[in-house]
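Memo to structure team: turn this sequence into structure tokens by end of day. - J.P.
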Amino acid sequence: LIVNPRSFSASQGLAAQAAELARSHGAEVISVDGPDATRAAIEGILARRQRHVMLLAGDGTVCAIVDQLSNLPVDAWTPDLLVLPGGRTNLTAADLVPGGRALPTLKRALLRAREQRWDAAVEERCALRIEHAGASPRHGFFFSAALVDSVIRQCHQHRAERNQLGDLSTFKYLLQLAARAMRGRSGMTCPTLQVDAGSCGAQSGPVRLLLATTLLHRNGLFDPYAPRGHGDVRLTSVSEAAPRFWRTLPRLLTGRYTPAMNADNGYLSGRCDRVQIGGLATYMLDGEPFDADPSQPVTLSAGPRLRFIRP
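Reply from structure team:
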């Protein structure tokens, strides 16, 4: 069991409970509190080929581990991963183990491992690969840019400045931003992008919202992608000129697209194999901020497949 005790939910006593439970069933517990410790833990697991690996952490730590495994040589050995919700949003855990609470899910996994039934529910999934000049390929599950990137960065700054960690504080701040945006007073500017999603369509001009993932969002209402097209990459890009944006936002966020919400009207959404984005200067990957050279394209595609457990 790899635990990040600094992740949001884990830091509220969950990490200690999970560690005690894991040790009581004979599992090794590794505590990581930063990138170097996380990388070293995975290197040790790879060296001894530890097959069963459970992760209790937030999306950022899970992203770092998935990125490390995805950057291994082709056909390299990788462990089976069980992702438990230990962070704030837990989008990855909610998708890979829908509805799974951390401690009950951990206990089921430990019992299955002891009874040699761990492989009863293995699912192969790929992460999203992000490639652009000046950086090695990155892998994660939830990519966001345009005004979404700006909003997340402002939320991070708001929490840091006020030393507020609760979900209620974040929600209230998001409501304030939304209210200002609807009155045209958000102070944020839509970046001008060129989005090419192959057979799914293309878009050029100021973009209000840009999201991409390989997650299926099988838990909860949030699923902001149209059910059309083919491929492992799911994309939604909404232009600034898209009509009735605020009125259609609830439908967009829950994947209930109308025929009028199409690429011709500024709503580019669906499945594809590859996305190329021009003009992008900043983006978020699983809640972590990154910069890019806007003069060079950013390419999104599906990374190598990894094995995940659903006990």
